[in-house]
Structures are given as C-alpha cells and as structure tokens.
Amino acid sequence: MYKAPQTPFFPYFIGNYGNSIQSAKQVNGVALARKLAQEIAEELNDPRQITQKSTLAKFNMLVEELRTLDAKQMEQASQELHFNSAQASSHSRQDALKSLAWKSFCDALVEAGTGPAFLQIQKIIEHQQVSDAEAARMISRLPVTARFPDKEYMNSFFNFVRSNNVQHQNQLNETALLAFAELCRKADVNARNAHNYYPVHVYGRVLPEHAKAVAHQYLPYYEQNLKRAVANGDSRKIQAYIRAIGNFAHPKILEVFEPYLEGKVPISNFQRTVMVLSLNELARVYPNLARNVLFKIYQNTQENQEVRVAAVFLIFGTNPSAQTLQRMAQFTNEDQDQQVNAAVKSALENAAKAHSESRQELAQAAQSAIALLSPKTYGLQYSKKWLRDYIVKEENLAYRVSADMIQSEDSLIPNQVYVALHRYLGGFAQRVASFRAMTSSASDLVEKIQEQFTNGEEYQQQSEMNQQFSAEQIFRQFNIKPDYPQEVEALLQYTVFGAKRWAFFDEEFFNQIPRRLNDALSKVQNGQSFNSTKFYNDISLSLAFPTATGLPFSYTLKVPTLVQAGGEVQARVQGHNSNNNNNLFRIPEAVNVTAEIEIVYATELKSELGFVTPFNHERYVAGLAKNIFVNIPVKVAANVDIANTKVEFYMKPMNNQNEQKIFHYGSYPYTAIQNIFDFRPLQENENTKYIFANENKNKFEKVYGEEKTGFAFRCQYKGDQQSFQFADFYNFAKRNDFFSAAFFPWAEKTIQYNNFDVYYDPARSAAKSAKFALNYANKYANKENNNEGNSNNHNNNQNDAVPSSYQPDNEQRMNQFASRAQSGVQSANIDVIDISAQFFGQKNADYVATLAYARSPVAEKARFLFYAGANNANNNKNKVAVDATAYMPNVPLVNAAQAFNADANSRLYANVKSGENLDNGAQFQFQANMKQSQEFRDYFRQSQMYKQCSQQMEQGEYMMPACRNATVAANRLNEAHFSINFDKVSDAVKNYTYQAFAYARHLGYQYQSENFGNPNGQHNKIDGYFKFSPKFDFAQFYFNAPSVAASFKNVPVHQYVADFFAPHPVYSGFDRLMQDTFQAKYQGKDYRGSFATILTVIISFMNSIDFLKRYSNFIVHTITFDL
C-alpha cells in the first residue's frame, strides 16, 4: 500500500535495466512531478500553448510518473505543490500558476490509481487542502482509476468511509459510500469484471480470499446505517444507503432489502422504487437471481404502480427467456394497470428491434412475444422504455442507448427519467454517460419549487386573499378529509468528468432554495472570480505481454481530456430584496450580468503500440494521435428585463489585439524512438517521424464571416485530404447517425495526416463587438382594429409586413405589427417577437426579424406578419416581408352531429415581398384552398368510430370517447389546391428553388415523375395540389411550373408528420401532434350514473402546471349522468 507497484512490461517500470525509472540516478521523482505540473500550469494559463506544447500528453506523462512513486515521495511532491486556491489573488499571475499546478497534480493523483496515490488523496482531504465539492469529485473517480485494489487498498478505503471527517460532510460522505460499494463490485463481487479489468495474469486475482468481507464486514455496516436512517426518517441518507447497497450487487443485498420491499418495515413508495431500481447492478452480475425477484414484484398486482414499472424495466436487463416475455405480453391483456402494461409493451417492441450481437437473444425472445401483447396504444403520458443500438459500417464501432420513463398519474411530467449511453470500440465496451432524474411526485416537486418564489408584495397579498378560497378551505367547509401530500423526495444521477455523480434531496433542501439563491446573489453582486480546471482520462486501456524476442511489448489507448472554465462574473438586480421576512425568493424585475469568461475544451485520442529495450532505455513506438481543441474567450454582458420580457446580450472577444486559435482538429500518424529518461512529449522529440500520404502537399486557407458580420475567422488546413466536397459530408452522414457522430468524432475509415485550425483574426475584423436582443410581447384586443392595416390584403398588392422602421431592436415596429396583425380579427390575442443581431466596429452589420401572430377563439380569421432584414458589413441589404391571412371556420368541437355536417373548408392567402428594396423587389402572391376530399368523407362515414358514435348519439350520449374522437376527425382537411404568382424574381432565387427540387427529386426518385419543357406552364405562375390519403398514411403532390411539371405519388407519410401538416380548422399542428404523441384519443374511463333530483359536482384541480392545463382537454374521463 505504501510502496509503488511493480508493473511489468511498461517503460517507466522496467526501462532502467528491468527496474523502475526511480532507481536511476538521473531521475528525481519528486522534482520531476513538480516540474511537469508547473509546465502544465504555464500552458493552461495561456490556452494557445495547449496544442503547441502537447499539454495533454504531459498530463499523461505526469500520471505515469506518479505511478512509480511511493507514499513518502507522493507526500513530498504534494507538500511542494500545495497551494490554497481560496486565498489566491485574481490579479496575481504567480498565484494563478500555483493554483493551476496544484489542480493538475491533484487530477493526476486521482488518475494514477495506485495505493500511495490513494493514501495521499486521503491526507489531502483530511487536511482540507481541497474544497468539499472537489474532494467528492476526486473520490467519485476512484472506482474507475484504481489500478489494483487489493485487500489493503479496500480496507483503507473502508476506514476512510467510516472516518469522522467524511461522516460530517454530506456530499463527500454520500460519494464515498457509493464509490466504495462500486469498487467492491468491480474488484470482488463481479468476478468477470475483475478478470477483464485488472491485471490478474500478473498479480493473480485482486481479492483471492477476501470475498467474505463484503457480506460479513462491509454490507452489515451499510445495513445498520440504513436502519438508523429509516428510524430517524432521514430521507437523504435513506436514499444514499439504498443506492450504495445496490452498488455492491452482492446476493446478500436482497436480504437487506427484503423487509422494506415486503412492507414489514414501512418506508415511502419513492424509497421502495429507488430500492428496486438499485437492483440494476445485481441484474447485470447475477441476472437469474435478480430476474426471479423482479418478476415476483411485477406479478404482484397489489404492489405500488411505480415499483412494478421499475421491476419491468430491470427485467429486460437480465436477458429474460422467451417464455418469460411471452407471459408478460399475455398478461398485458389481463392487468388493469395501464402504466405497467405500457412499460411492458414499449420494452418488448423496442427489444424486438435490437441489432447488436449482444442483444440478438433478447431480440429473438421479444419477437416471439410481440403477437401476444395488448392491442391498446399508449402515448407519452404512459411509462415507456426505449432501446436503440447502431453499428457504424466497416469501422467496428457501435453504440447503445437505453432510456426509460416512469410516468405519474397527476402530471404529464414523468416521475423518473433515465438515459444511458454505451459505446463499443473494436469490442471494447464503455459506458459513456448516464443520467437519472427521479422524484416522489413531479407535480408536488413543481409546486414545492414554485412555493419558494414570489413576484412581490402585491402578489403575496393576492395569494393571502386567495387562501380564503383554497382547496383546504373548501374541504373544511364540506367536512372532507383531504389526502395531504407526502414529503417531496428526489434524486439526480449524472456523469461528469468521467465519473458517476449522485445527489439526493429531501424537502428541507427545497425549503432552503431562497436562502441559497440569496447567498449566491450576494456573492456575485460585488464580482466573483472562478476557475474550474479538470483533467481526466475518458478512456485508459493498457495491454502488455512478452514477445519471442524477449522484449516487452505494450499497447495503450488513452483519451486525456481537459475542461477549463475561468473568469469573473458580476450581477446586479432590480426589484429584489434579499432581506424579506417571508422566506421566499423574490423574482427580480431586472437582472444585469457582466462577465469575462474563457472556456477551454481539449481532448486527445492517443493509440500507441511498441516495445522497450531496457538495456539502452529506449522505446520504439508507432502511434496515432487525434486532437480536438476548442477555446472561447469572450467578454459578455446581459440585461434581462423580466417585467417587460426583454433580453439584451452583448459580446466581444476578450483579446482584440492578438490572433487567437479557437478550434483545432489534428490527426497525426507517427513512428518514434524515445529515451525513457527524456520527459518530453513525442511531438518535441527529434526522432518522431510523421507519416504523410502525399508529402503534406494539400493546403488551403480561407476567411469566413468578414463580409457577413465583420468578424473574421481564418481557416487553415494542411494534410492528406485532397479536397472537401459535399459528397464527403454526405457519405459521413450516411455512415453515421447523430449519436455515432457525437460518440466517435475522430472516427475515419483511413489513417491520414490532417491539421485543421480556425483562428479569430482581429486584424481583418471590422467588427469589435456584437449585440443580440430578444423582445416578446403578448397583447389582447377585445375589439377589432380596422384603423391600421388592410384586413383584405390578399385582394391587392398591399403588404402589412413592410415596416415603417428597419432599425434593429425597434419597439415601434413591434407595436406597429401588433396593431396591423389584429386588423379584422375580433377579440384577438396577439403574440409579437422581435429578434436582432448587431455588429459594431469600423463597419457595422445588423440582422432583424419581427413576427406577429393574431388569432381568436371566436373569429374565423387569423393573421401572420413576418419581416426579416439583413445588412452585412459590406452594406449589402436584403429584406423579406410576409403577410399571411387564414380563414378557418369554428367547427363544432363537442357536438358530433353538428361536426359531421359542418363546412370545414378553409383558405390561406399570403403576400410576400423580398429584395434590397421591398417596393421594387420580387413579389409572390400565394393562395390555397383546403378541403376534404370525397374519398376521405366516404372513408370516415364507413369507419367503426363513426358508426359507434352514431349508435351512442341515438341513445343520447354525445360525450363518450368515440364521439369525442369522431368530432375531431370529422373536420380534418386532407386536400389543398394552391397557386403562386410571382414577379421580378432574381436568378439566384430561381437557382436555389431548382436545387431544392433536385434534392427532393433525389430523395423521392421512386415516387416521382416529371415533364421538362412543360407545354402547359404559365408565365410567372406555379399551381398544383397536395393530398393525403383517407388514412393519412400516404401523400400525393403535384405542381405545374413554367418550365417543368412534376408529381410525387404514394409517398409514405409518418403519423406525426401527417398530424402536423394535415390541417384542422381549430386545432393547430402542434395541438394535433400533442394529441397523438400522448395518444389522447379520449381513451379515458367512462362513468355512468342516474340521479333523480339534483347533481352537484365539485372538482378540485390541485398541483397543476401550465402544460397540463393546456392539454388536459386531451386526457379526459367521461362522466355521463341520466337526470
């Protein structure tokens, strides 16, 4: 534990005649560690040097060197580099360097993963040389970085967990509990992982006779503390110990959880759900054992709904048999709990689509059970599980995404969301990230958070007055005993800096939100400096073995990563009093924030293979290094006017004098010979030879942004790529989807030398600063306004979207658009948004967009005005104005008989002007008539839904689900005929239009036919039609242009696309999409009853949210009474 490990085959351990480099006279381990940490600090202080001097390679070199140190050397190096960052001056360069060197050393210490490194981490934490949050981050990384956690290591870790210093720090205590249990699982309980992850062929099994310690020593300690937390009702500790016990994944944890799951010891349903979800690691290590327990929980229909759903999700992680899945599928036809049924159905359907080799057995089992599932359709308001995998063709890369969601009965916001991402590199599996958010009640959580905020004294007085008519008062008057809400509990799990982090919340935490916000606000009002620097290895893989020559051979794959954010921030507020006595946080009327921020992200994928000659201290390697570097140094200021819903954002480069590299991508294949006592990166080694395919002759340089915004960004490329064409990006997109492109940004089919850089060039930048503004207003006009604007502009050439002022961030234009948009619209509700971007300097540029939309629940007419203007740095101007009017009849929504006979035909008119001068520019007149085709009406009247509704109406039942669904479906429009008249259209616009048509023709070539040289084409006119099939599953499109006529027939259409684009006179595209997304086809429960005299209905909507209020009419329970 105190000595440095003796790891064979690797250069720093055998490079000095078979001994560690620490045995060499020319190596002073402590001085070398100090030197490397200080060099890294120098380079971090000037991010331009990070790629030039291979900072990430130096960090890995520091990690490797620390692994050769014993405990005494480690402590000495720590003492020499220690610096209290809290006392550092923000204006002292020396303090900044010392702070960065200390942070780099601590990160390298964590990545070293040896026994001496862990002992030093303990000392650093015990002496409070790092903050509580940083201590927790260091401990959370240990389960990933521990090189060989033997008996001494584990006992030392266990003693650390139980120490008084750790026990009295909640965040550190929870992290240590979870990290220790996870390490026990990896090194001890999971024998397969221990074999694959640790060098067992060198040292033997990690813990050969230590397996009993988990069951007889570690787990009993956790169990006793869980009992104590339950007795004290400490929700936060209960959650932490439940999750930590689950991390062990030892079969004995079932005995610990049994009294709680069986109800012998009462705990909340949330805690029981957490307990079931904590069996996820047991399901991986002992799938058969876990499956038996989880299946019993699922089969118990008297069990809590969320507990059962959690069991369903974990069953699919145990590779269940076909018989098990068939029983579950069949049970969906009998089980009355629709949330559970929805979870089973979604999990089965997604599992059946799996493609990866590891999931083929599950996929086949799921496919055998699909036919037995309930035919019911479940929307997003039900619990769901998603599984997706993807294989990148010809590159031996793959990823897997798992996601699940536990829904609640009282809110559209789920009570639990979980996402996990795994990637596979040539067979090497790695969990990239995971995220879990969970609460006892989403609606209670939202309400609890809302209760901590107030808009001011007037709001508070109004709230006190409303208390007289609160739900509690109503319950008291009617002598009703209410169900008081239980304590709000929540947890959050996320992956950051290569480590899994957990946060547990009880009700007291939410009650402290106002105090925490006030404290944070008081700190930043006078300016707050910050600097967060974190190194970690995203991937660290090492393989080594002897060769027939007697020379040790090794292969390493490492991805060192740097995330750095530093600067100073200051915030001032208006209309906020932190000294109010109501313990609430008063939302300020306005917030002003100024900051100087520099964000740096750098990562290097480095793959090397080679051998060492210990007799002359040389290593011979061939490798590939790929670098990504991003640097964003900016000064920003933001003015947020909450009362008037306006945001202004100012930005300028932090350094307007010197050229700055803001992006770099490099790919460098190389060979090298290096003396192991040469502690420099290979990039600086004279014996490093880069490999070029064509002598590095391909180069290009181009400047972007200079004309558009005034900010000049210079792009340089040098490498083997001969050219960059659209086909290259198309083939990349075809080979990858979104996630694979994000998971493997460095993946290439061939090994090439590439060097691509983007620089901010202040010398060529005419602009020095930028301003972005967003202004929103909502207005209600209870009378028509016909004084301004033309309510029938489709009959003439007038365009109300042409503003009187083209200036950016113009309130006059917003008021003008609001006044014009409401013209002819009775009782209009108007939304106006104005967005602008301005660039200031030697040459100014500005971009503007203003939008106004007026609609009314009582008027058929709706208006839409849109203006956008661009004035670039070269004073080239372009504008566009769109004035659109729609006439949509108010068809019946609750009376099916009237809806069946209603005239739903609708019209749309639009007048568009564009060009540098809107008076003399291009003009477009668009007209569309939307209706129902006869085929659709015949199909609808033959549908089962229509027939069922007709029968119900004969019995006097107009509000049953069939009639509610039929009422909506009866007035959907599936056919539109349109015409476009245009004039003065530039050749550039015509060219863009043809390119768009060519692209559409390429995508839909199997459905398309065309006639060039169209004899029926009319000058400056396009007409045509668009038509959905009666089922809205296919579409046809035809247009007749001056030079070409084309049609697309029988094009398959996704359900959600049809929902959004097939219009309804009343419901918007988004409303229809929400109906299908949540499958709210009025599938609620029906209650029938007879009342002879008086019917009194009292409905109390509690814990509602805006989203639920808006769409609650889609999810209903129909109540029919015979009076």
UniProtKB/TrEMBL annotation:
Annotated SMART domains: DUF1943, LPD_N
Residue segments, region Disordered: 783-809
Name of a matching Pfam family: Vit_open_b-sht
Key word Amino-acid biosynthesis present: no
GO molecular function, one term: lipid transporter activity
Superkingdom, taxonomy of origin: Eukaryota
UniProt name for this protein: Vitellogenin-like protein
Annotated source species: Bemisia tabaci (Sweetpotato whitefly)
